Every structure is written in structure tokens, then in C-alpha cells.
Amino acid sequence: MSYNKSLEIGTATAGPVEKPYLKAGQKKADMPFAGNGSLRLLAIPLLMGTDLLSFAASIGLAYIIRVFALPAVFVSLPYTSLDYLYALWWIPFLGVVFLLFEKMYSKRLPFWQEAGQLVKTTTFVFLVAICGVFLTKQGGSNSRTLVFLAWAISLFIIPALRYAGKILLAKLHIWEKPVIILGAGETGKLILHTFHHEPVIGYKPVGFLDDDNYKQKNPPKLPSGEEIPVLGTFDEAEAIMERSGIRDLIIAAPGLPGNDLVQLVNRLQRKAYNLLVIPNLFGMAMEGVEVQNLFNERTLVLKIKNNLNDRFNMAVKMTFDLLLSFVLLTIVLPVMLILAIAIKLDSKGPIIYTDNRIGKSGREFKCYKFRTMFPDADFILKKYLSKYPEARLQWEKYAKLKDFDPRVTRVGAVLRRFSFDELPQIFNVIKGDMSLVGPRPYLPREKVSMGGREDILLTRPGITGLWQVSGRNEIEFSERLRMDSWYVRNWSLWLDISILIRTIAVVIRGKGAY
Predict the structure, then answer these.
(1) Phi, psi (5° rounding) for residue 185?
(2) CB burial class (10 A; 0-12, 13-18, 19+) of residue 8?
(3) How far is CA 190 from the centre of its chain?
(4) Cα 55 to Cα 122: distance, rounded to the nearest angstrom
(5) Rounded CA gap, 280 and 183, in Å?
(6) CATH architecture classification, 20-26+174-282
(7) What percent of the chain has pLDDT over 90?
(8) CB proximity list for 105: less than 8 A, separation 6 or greater
(9) CA-to-CA distance for 301 and 280, rounded, in angstroms?
(10) Three-state SS at 464
């Protein structure tokens, strides 16, 4: 890191870079990005109110289902009076206490990561509630069915209302917290775009600090084209913090030498309220990482687990796949029969298309799909690519044809748009060849192109995966490999659940499917 001590606050330092927010004598309240600190104090009590409402709504909805819906199905169920509803008045307050203990009112997380923690905490709240009822011998005044329904409903209601609440509070600038990012390079831009696309995190980057003259003249931009100014250099951080009133910093300079990074952190920690450091550890597994220290906290130790090397985790994943696959099969089997008839009437050839794919540990298996192409698809493709060079370039880049694929039938185009062609892969899951969620099932010829990504073969390929909910076929082949590798190294059951939920939205939109 190069420290440039000749730069003065409030001056044009490296060419035509203006710093209108840092003029001498300017007050914090006059700064456009300083925000209203007193207004932000309302964030925690408003979020608590949202969570109280969520728990109460879950219990209320559970009571309605118990009283009006279930008796229509199970006529032998006894009547549940309002007393059973009133008996659970304390659960919402218990829930807020547990969320407070888990620091869920101060953490700023992406939605799916926060939702996972909310699900775990909510489950623990209801387990404690059940134990409390049992230990205090109040079972006669509580309905077990009502408590179970309230728990099941809360798993969806609480994350959804919290998401809606944070979006609203962010628009009202209550949950929004201004931050300054140290480092205007690629990592800083990545952080900027992440905060822009994840408003529930609540961080609003108002400026960057960087020593590089080029970056000062060419500040990072939002997708809308709005520039986020470079306010100064690393040496000016304390002065900018003092004059702006911003005490939240993010150090996104992974190329900074270790000693310089430590000195910078130690220096800024004195005045910063919150200091986030992005280390140069890109590509390393993050799920389940534990932070430890040795030698009187002079050495930082990261304990990294390989979740997919754990037999218990693999048993959990396989059990989850089988149970959900049988449930899904009973639902989609009538749809599959209709699609089979449509395929047969549309074009000649078999209904089911089988192809060799690479499975766990590199073993090949027969992957089932509804046929979406003409029987002589390979000949049609070869002829088409030789005639259209731009299509050949597209094929080499994506291993797909985006605009027009002459091999695909009319029914096949519809099946591909909504990923219905992959429904027969449920039988692959039941056979044990595939998983509901996992890496893309790669072709044997693509194994050569994996180069260094063999960790993808540590688990079974999936019907859906991280690549499918992140852009599907619009993602380049190399990026798919990176995503699949990240999935394998960061697997968790909640990651699978969140991908399955997101897949539904992606399939409905039909974006990236061809």
C-alpha cells in the first residue's frame, strides 16, 4: 500500500476528483450522506415489533386452520376454544428474546442467510415453549396441534414479514446505514453491487477510499450508472470519518500486504463503530467456518470443515432427497403423463431421452430427460454450426444455442422453457444416481474442461443447483464450474432448501432457459 500524505482533505487530489462532502468547516448535519442517526435508532424497536406481529400472526393463522379447516378433514378432532389461543400469548415475546440473544437485530445478512438463522431460532423457540408447557404441567390448557401448526407456519411467515419490513425500513432510510469502502478495485465493486442487489442488508455505500489515482478519476458505478465517489486516500480515513460522521467501514483491499492491512485495521479500529475486513481468501469454503485464536490472540485460526465428507451429513442429504422425491413424484406424475402424450404426438422418436452423464466420483450413469430434440439432432447441429459461424462461437462459449436451436421440437421448446424436460430425473434421484440439488450433471466430454474443479465430483449431480437459480444457461461454462465448486465446498441442508425454493421462482419466470 502506498501512503500519500501530501493530499489534503477537501482538495482535488488526483485530477478532477471533487470532494464536495469534505469541505473545511462543514458540519456533519450538512452532509448529504451522513443520514439521520436518530431516525435509525427506530430500526431495532420496529424490527422487534415486526417479529412480534409475525409470531402472533403465525399463532392466529394456526388457530384459524385448527378451528375451521382441520375439523372438516378430521371430524373426530375436539373443539379448540379461544382459551387455547390466549394460552400462547407469551410465545411472541419469547421469540423476540431469543432473536435478541442471537443478535438478529444487529446482524446485517443477505436474505437467504438470515432466513436460515430465523428458521433455526424459531424452531428452538417452539421447542423451548413445548418443554416449558410440559415442565409446568400446563399441557391440559394448551393444544399440541395448535403449537405444531404455529411452528410450521412461522417458518414461512417470520422470514417473509421480516424481509418486507426491512425493505420498507430501508426505503424510509431507517434500516439504511451509510458505509465507506476502503478499496475501489474489483472487490470493492463486488461489495457495492452486493449491497445494491441485497437491500435487506441495509448498508448504503456513500464513498470509497483508495490511493490509486486512476480509481480516483474513475470511481465505481452502480448498475444504474450512478457514480459512488472516491472521497480520498487510506491516510485520510480518520479525517473523513470525523467530518462525515460515518463510523462503519469496510476494508475491501485483498491485495494489501499483510503487515499494512494489520496496521490499517488497528489504526481505524480506534474510531470505527463497525469495521468489516474482506480477506484475500476467495474461493475458500465458508460454510461452518469457526474463528479461533492462539497465543494470546496473536494468531488467527480458521477451522474449515468439509460438510460433504461427513457421513452423517451425506445421510441427511440422501434421506431428504428420497423423502421429497417421493412426495414430488405423487404430485407431478399426472403432469408427466400429459407431457409424454404431447411429445409422442409432436414428433417421431422415444418419449424419454437417456444420455451418459458424470456422477459422483466420476462414475457415469444414464440420465433421464423428456426428449426435446429431433432424433437426428447431432447431424442437424453439425450442419447448422458449419453454416453459421456466430452460432458456433456461441456454442463454444456456452455449450448452448441461445437464440435459435434447430434441433429442438415445438413441444421441446416449451419443456425447456419451464424445465419440464428434467422431471424424469426424479427417478434418477430415487435410484441414487442424482440429488435434488447439486452440481450440474456434466457430459463425459466436458470432464476435460473441468481442469482443477474435480471437487464437483465429490457429490451426486442435481436436478437443480446454484447455477440454475443464478442465471441458468446465461452463465458461461467456466462460471458454472466455479458455482458448482462453491456449492460442494459450502454445502448445508439449508442451502439445498433455499435453492429449491428459488428454483420455483426461476422456473416460473422462465429466464435463462433455452
Answers:
(1) -85, -160
(2) middle
(3) 15
(4) 9
(5) 13
(6) 3-Layer(aba) Sandwich (3.40)
(7) 44
(8) 43, 44, 47, 48, 99
(9) 15
(10) strand
Select from 154, 137, 163, 155 the least CA-distant residue to 63. Answer: 154
**Distance, CA of 396 to chain centre:** 29
Give the pLDDT confidence score for residue 74 in this predicted structure.
Answer: 76
Write down how long the chain is: 514
3-state secondary structure of 301: strand
Which residue, among 282, 283, 300, 299, has the nearest Cα to 291 in the 3D structure? Answer: 300
Residue extents of the structural domains in the chain: 20-26+174-282, 43-171, 311-373+408-509
**Taking a C-beta distance cutoff of 8 angstroms, is the pair 194, 220 a contact?**
no
Helix, strand, coil % in the chain, rounded to nearest 5 = 55, 10, 35
- The x, y and z cell numbers of residue 24, run together, are 473545511
pLDDT of 225:
86
Rounded to the nearest 5°, which phi and psi values hold at 205?
-65, 125
Order across the sheet with 230-232: list the strands.
Answer: 230-232, 203-209, 177-182, 248-251, 274-277
> Cα separation of 208 and 188, whole Å?
8
488 or 308: which leads in pLDDT: 488
CB 164 within 8 Å of CB 49: no
Whether the pLDDT of residue 337 is over 80: the answer is yes
In terms of Cβ atoms closer than 10 Å to its own Cβ (0-12, 13-18, 19+), residue 93 is middle
Q: Are 157 and 57 in contact (CB under 8 A)?
A: yes
Task: Produce one character per residue of 33-45: b if its CB has 16 or more CB atoms within 10 Å, e if not.
Answer: bbbeeeebeebee
Q: What is the pLDDT of residues 57-113, one digit of tens each?
A: 999 999 999 888 888 777 677 777 888 888 899 999 999 999 999 999 989 999 999
CA neighbor of 242 nearest in space, from 323, 296, 180 = 180
Helix locations, 199-310, DSSP H: 213-217, 237-244, 258-268
| 3-state secondary structure at position 20 | helix
Confidence of residue 45 (pLDDT cuts 50, 70, 90): very high
- Spell out the long-range contacts of 14-20 with Cβ–Cβ below 8 A and sequence spacing 24 or more: 14/213, 14/216, 14/217, 15/213, 15/216, 15/217, 16/217, 17/216, 17/217, 17/229, 17/230, 18/229, 19/229, 19/231, 19/232
> What is the DSSP code (8-state) at residue 15?
S
Element (H, E) at 343: helix 311-346
Q: How far apart (Å, rounded) are the C-alpha atoms in residues 450 and 398?
A: 14
Contact 96, 118 (CB under 8 A): no
Other Cβ atoms within 10 Å of 338 Cβ, number:
9
415 Cβ neighbours under 8 A, 6+ residues apart: 339, 343, 370, 372, 421
With both helix axes pointing from N to C terminus, report the angle between 389-398 and 377-387 in degrees, rounded to the nearest 10: 120
From residue 239, give the alpha-carbon distance in Å to each of 9, 153, 232, 233, 235: 8, 50, 10, 10, 9
How many Å apart are CA 470 and CA 467, to the nearest integer? 5
C-alpha cell at 130: 413445548
To which residue does cell 393444544 refer?
A: 143
C-alpha 372/C-alpha 353 separation (Å) is 8
More confident residue, 197 or 2: 197
